[in-house]
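Blinded run. Sample ID left blank on purpose so nobody reads anything into the name before looking at the predicted structure. Input follows.
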Amino acid sequence: MNTRDIVSADLVTTAKAVITTLSGRNCMLGVSESVTGGTIASCLTRVNGCSQVLFASQVLYSILGKSSFCDESIKNIADKGTVSDYIILRMLDCMSNRFFTILSKNSAVTPRFFVSLATCGVAGDPIEGLPRGTVLIGISLHRKDGTCFGRDIRRHVFDGDRGAIMLAATSTALLLVLEKAGLLNLP
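Blinded prediction complete.
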């Protein structure tokens, strides 16, 4: 077994804890991934019961993808930064807005909470003055009426090559969901 397989097994174990925890709190999750390139969703979808928790996942890798998903001009994103608090907030808000738009059309789906998770960063050559390994991870927590009651953006710098940065960001993002899950017991 190579190191990557061991890390993947650890990530799937963490993903299982995320699915179990969110399911137990009647919560759904939406993920907007850039620097992680779909690895968060890949880990989550390896877990039985994932479809009860994972609302959707979207990989927004290019500036064009971010522009389309976030309904923002390419110029505005370029001005604010493709790796910025601004774009993380837009990714979080757009995933949440899509969820609540769908929910309003389908009252049979009534989770108590919705969590939006987003990642962006630099896994390759430095961009926008940011070094390789710079990663932003954002999370927002919403009640079923759409009210946001918690939001957090964290900046990290991970070492290693592209794969190591992606895996570190994935692990950190999943652990952030578990950390914030305690807030999902609030009335």
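Unblinding after everyone has recorded impressions. The chain has one domain: 3-159.
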